[in-house]
Amino acid sequence: MTYADTEFADPKPSIENPRQFIFPITSGDENQISHVLSSASNVMKFYGPEKCEIVIVCYSQGIKTVLTKAYFFDKDIQKRVRSLMTYDVEFIACGNTMKTYGVNKKELLSGVEIVTAGIVELIERQRAGWTYIRP
Prior knowledge:
The chain is α/β, with parallel strands linked by helices. It has a single domain, classed as Hypothetical Protein Ychn, Chain: A. It is built from 4 helices and 5 strands; from the N terminus they run E-H-E-H-E-H-E-H-E. Pfam families: DsrE.
C-alpha cells in the first residue's frame, strides 16, 4: 500500500506562521474527552509543536477535563492534559459553565485560563482565522 504525502497549503506552516487550531470539549464522557486530546496530540505531532498553536475550550460537561478532582475512571486524562500543556497547548474554561456548576478557580488545573463564555471564545477565534476542529 502506498500513501500520498499531505500537500501543505500556502503559506506553509512555520514558526513565524503557525497553524492555529481550536477544539471544543463539551462532553463529560471520557471516551470523547480522550478522542479530543488524542486528536490535538496527533495534529501537534504532524506539524511539530513549534509550527502550530492549539487551544482546547472546555464548557458544559467538558469542564470536567480541567478540574483537579474530576474522578475519571481513566486516570491518564489529567496526566495527558498536563502533558499537552507542557507543549503550550492552551486549555480554556468557560466562566458561565463554572457559575452554572458552582466551580471556582481553585478547582481548575494550574495553568487553565478562564473566559466569560466558551462558545464566544470559539466564535471569536474562528473569526480571527483559527481552524475549528470537532473530532
